[in-house]
Design a protein that fits this description.
The complex is a heterodimer of chains A (225) and B (450).
Chain A (H helix, E strand, L loop, with lengths): L2 E5 L3 H13 L3 E5 L2 H7 L7 E5 L1 E2 L2 E2 H10 L6 E5 L4 H9 L4 E4 L4 H12 L9 E4 L2 E4 L4 E4 L2 E2 L4 H11 L5 E3 H9 L9 H13 L8 E4 L3 E4 L4
Parallel strand pairs in A: 1-2, 1-3, 3-6, 6-7
Antiparallel strand pairs in A: 4-5, 8-9, 9-10, 10-11, 12-14, 13-14
Chain B lengths: L5 H53 L5 H11 L5 E6 L5 E4 L15 E6 L8 E10 L5 E7 L1 H51 L15 H51 L3 H32 L8 E3 L1 H18 L3 E6 L5 E3 L1 H18 L5 E9 L2 E8 L29 H12 L2 E4 L4 E7 L4
Parallel strand pairs in B: 7-9
Antiparallel strand pairs in B: 1-2, 1-5, 3-4, 4-5, 6-8, 9-10, 10-12, 11-12
Helix pairs in contact in B: 1-3, 4-5, 5-8, 6-7, 7-8
Classes of the chains: A alpha/beta (225), B alpha+beta (450).
């Protein structure tokens, strides 16, 4: 079982996070202090750290920096009420692998955790065949069960991104960040409109649905059985 | 006022300092006077001694005692000492009994005690004198009584001492007055700042028409207060706005949850209520996040990610990102991109700004209208313009639309934060947000570099 170490001093937030992560099948250990957390993080059984920045006895980023200095590469997701982007940049520079500002949706947290735990297979294969889908990135074409999908370049990139991260929630801001390369929360549904078009092209009449919309949260690519 | 009161201490310190200064000055004057008066008396006496020695040396030895006597008889003030002694030290003629212990001096004079023979009621006296050798080996002592000179100096000393008393009193008085004046000025500032601390931000320090350095300081403090008052007013306004803006959706949310819970009787029904509530809460959190972001941008705190940004690519991306949305709404979104030099900035923020402008154009422009996104040079500046064929922002509202929560039209959804955010982003980059004079167009203008 995947073991997550949560270092967060706010009991209420910690409780919610633990419930959500356990519901998603993770084992979670919780510590409220940086000192305890640092000791607990020495355990090789820990697969992922979730660290709050402002802890009563220290700064979460220092804890991560110390772990990195020891050569420990356990992926770390930094949580912070200091949501400014300068803070995020500092968080990532200190060795954090992702940065999630408070308040966050629990589903976003789970999506980020999944993204960190199962880093996509970075094989830069130019040909991806998953179930009925066949993506040829060099030619810029995609087919489903032999049917040409007629995707725009951006739609092909979106599908490529989803196919490489099956069974995981992909949020709008993750798509905007990783497929377009811009980090901000879109205030309109521009990304959803792109995804809507992609879904209509991929999932034809009467075909099993491959891209599922998780209402209000994002999208999941379901690996065809 | 107690001794420990810093204002009293300041007053005494000022008074004491000025008094000490005047005392020192008086003493220096008295000292100088004494030294100069003493010196001039001595020089006069010494000229007389030289003359006596020369005159008596010129007289033949047998006639010299008579010369001495004659000179003594001319001294009606009886303040001269003159005596001729033989080579063996015996008195020949004069009014001094013994040869003083001082030696023969060629220049200058000495002060010595002499034994007098002709002064009534006095056998010893202090005199300034010289002893000079006569051609026949006898010695002449010539001197003046120092009593008169000493008397004159004592008068000077006494008058200086007497003058010193009113001077010291005057100094202390003036010092106290100066100290109290300074203390009063500080006191005025202190009471005023106390009132300001208590909450009365409209108070100002008095500044005269011809201010001294203290007045200038007061003027500076006033300027600081002006700025502070402006900021506080702004913050209060924003706080009121936030409370007001959040109250409406919160009320709506509460009503919806309340009604939903009452009416829902199936699991699906409850889920629908919870979903709707979640969506409302997300909107509220979005408002809070946007406010925090605007504040952060206005603080100019976020420059760590500044890099060269290719605006041509950014505008192209923005067009591509919004095209499907535009098509769905039947809006013709067109992009005209001229090659421009890279600008220094944060690509994500600039994208957010452009994205907001496109959103606005699509939201407020006419249905099935046109939105033109263009990137071009104008003079040395690089200009990103979003134009639509709607009425645009009325001239009167242009200064208002960038304020938080200002909504030009109430019939469209949105919290009224979009242009505040765009303005803050433009500001952070040193760009300006400009509205077209004719038609509906908003531009981000990046001034020429250098």
């Amino acid at each position: 079982m995947t073991h997550i170490l949560l270092i967060e001093d706010d009991a209420g937030t910690a409780h919610e996070i633990m419930l959500e992560l356990r519901a998603n099948g993770y084992a979670v250990t919780h510590h409220g202090l940086a000192g305890e957390g640092f000791v607990a993080a020495q355990d090789d059984g820990v697969d992922l750290l979730i660290v709050d920045r402002q802890l009563p006895d220290g700064e979460g980023l220092d804890l991560i920096a110390r772990l990195r200095a020891e050569g420990r590469r356990t992926p770390a997701l930094v949580l912070s009420a200091l949501g400014s982007l300068d803070d995020r940049v500092r968080g990532l520079r200190a060795g954090g692998d992702d940065y999630l500002p408070k308040p966050f949706a629990l589903i976003e947290l789970v999506a980020r955790v999944e993204a960190l735990l199962r880093r996509p297979n970075e094989t830069r294969d130019t040909r991806l065949i998953v179930g009925p889908l066949d993506l040829d990135l060099l030619a810029g074409t995609a087919t489903r069960s032999g049917r040409a999908l007629d995707l725009l370049p951006r739609e092909l990139k979106l599908l490529d991104y989803l196919v490489r991260r099956p069974d995981r929630i992909i949020t709008r801001s993750m798509l905007l960040r990783d497929v377009w390369g811009y980090t901000f929360e879109p205030n309109s549904n521009v990304v959803d409109v792109h995804m809507g078009r992609l879904r209509r092209k991929v999932d034809g009449e009467g075909e099993p649905q491959l891209i599922r919309n998780v209402r209000g949260q994002g999208y999941v690519f379901d690996v065809p059985v | 006022m107690s001794r420990s009161d810093p204002r009293t201490r300041a007053t005494w310190r000022w008074g004491g300092a000025i008094a000490a200064l005047l005392i020192v000055q008086s003493l220096v004057v008295a000292g100088l006077f004494w030294v100069l008066a003493n010196g001039s008396h001595r020089r006069m006496a010494e000229r007389g001694f030289v003359r006596d020695c020369r005159d008596l040396a010129a007289i033949a030895a047998p006639a010299r005692p008579a010369g001495v006597r004659a000179m003594l008889e001319r001294d009606i003030h009886r303040d001269r000492f003159l005596a001729l002694f033989a080579a063996d030290g015996a008195l020949i003629e004069g009014n001094i009994a013994r040869l003083p212990l001082a030696g023969i001096t060629a220049h200058g004079s000495v002060v010595a005690e002499v034994v007098t023979t002709e002064l009534p009621g006095k056998t010893r006296d202090i005199a300034r004198l010289v002893i000079c050798a006569m051609p026949d080996g006898s010695r002449l002592v010539t001197g003046v009584d120092l009593d008169d000179a000493e008397e004159a100096l004592r008068v000077v000393e006494r008058s200086l001492a007497i003058a010193l008393i009113p001077a010291i009193l005057l100094a202390i008085g003036f010092g106290l007055a100066a100290g109290r004046r300074a203390a009063r000025q500080v006191d005025a500032v202190r009471t005023l700042t106390a009132r300001i601390v208590a909450g009365d931000l409209a108070e100002r320090l008095p500044v005269g028409t011809d201010p001294d350095s203290f007045g200038l300081l007061c003027a500076h403090i006033n300027a600081m207060l002006d700025r502070l008052q402006m900021l506080v007013t702004e913050v209060r306004g924003v706080g009121d706005d936030i409370a007001h803006q959040l109250r409406t959706p919160l009320t709506r949310l509460r009503a919806r949850v309340e009604r939903g819970l009452r009416e829902a009787d199936t699991r699906a029904g409850f889920e629908a209520v919870a979903d709707a509530a979640l969506a409302e809460i997300d909107t509220l959190l979005g408002i809070v996040a946007a406010l925090l972001r605007i504040r952060e941008l206005e603080d100019h705190a976020r420059r760590s990610r500044f890099a060269a940004v290719d605006l041509a690519r950014l505008v192209e991306d923005a067009c591509e990102l919004h095209r499907p949305t535009a098509e769905d709404r039947g809006i013709d979104l067109t992009c005209e991109i001229a090659p421009v030099a890279p600008v220094e900035g944060d690509a994500s923020l600039l994208m957010e700004a452009v994205s907001n402008l496109i959103d606005n154009a699509m939201k407020f422009g006419p249905a099935n209208g046109r939105v033109l996104l263009s990137l071009r040079h104008a003079g040395g500046a690089v200009v990103v313009t979003v134009a639509d064929d709607g009425p645009g922002v009325p001239r009167a509202e242009r200064s208002l639309v960038t304020q938080r929560f200002y909504r030009g039209r109430q019939d469209c959804e949105g919290a009224g934060l979009g242009l505040s955010l765009v303005n803050a982003i433009a500001d952070l980059h040193g760009f300006t947000l400009a509205f077209a004079d004719v038609g509906s167009a908003v531009s981000l203008v990046a001034p020429a570099r250098g």
